[in-house]
Amino acid sequence: MVTQNRIDPDENVTMTRLVGQVAGGFRELFAAHAEQWRAEIAHETEQARKAGVRLAIGSALLGVGAVFVMLAAVWALQEILLWPAWAAWLTVGFVLTVGGSAFVVLGLKIFERVQWLPDRAWQSMQETWSCLTNGKK
């Protein structure tokens, strides 16, 4: 992407030409950084989308499965172990709450790994700026 515009030492160099080449270099550098930002943002957006889809599917399956397991567990506790209805429902509800919480925590951990700001592009731009300004802030 970067072009090499070498100046022949025998050639008559004008200030206009030098300024034009510097401006062209800045334009190419800015375009390269913009492309890097775009690529990183696209990647992280895709990661967030994947995490969201998995959370949605997992939540739906968890909800449907929980209903069936809850009904079967309550029935088993009442009929087989002869528990009172309130104790059976309380126990099953508690177990489902703990299980659902575990899924939520796992989904949040996936979202924590998503980098919302493109770190590599930002670091690259800082390095470029440091080179252009000779390390001055």
The overall average pLDDT, rounded, is 83
What's the N-to-C terminus distance?
A: 28 Å
* Total helical elements: 3
Element-by-element helix/strand order = HHH
* Biggest sheet record: none
Strand content: under 5%
Shape: rod-shaped
**What structural category arises from helix and sheet content?**
mainly alpha
- Helix amount, in percent? over 70%
Account of the protein in words:
- With 137 residues, the protein is mainly α.
- It has one domain (15-131).
- The chain contains three helices and no strands.
- The longest helix is centred in the middle third of the chain and has 65 residues, at 15-79.
- The chain is rod-shaped.
Keywords:
mainly alpha, 3 helices, 0% strand
What's the quick description here?
Helices cover 78% and strands 0% of the residues. The protein is an all-alpha fold and 137 residues long.
Secondary-structure blueprint:
Blueprint (H helix, E strand, L loop, with lengths): L14 H65 L5 H28 L6 H14 L5
Helix pairs in contact: 1-2, 1-3
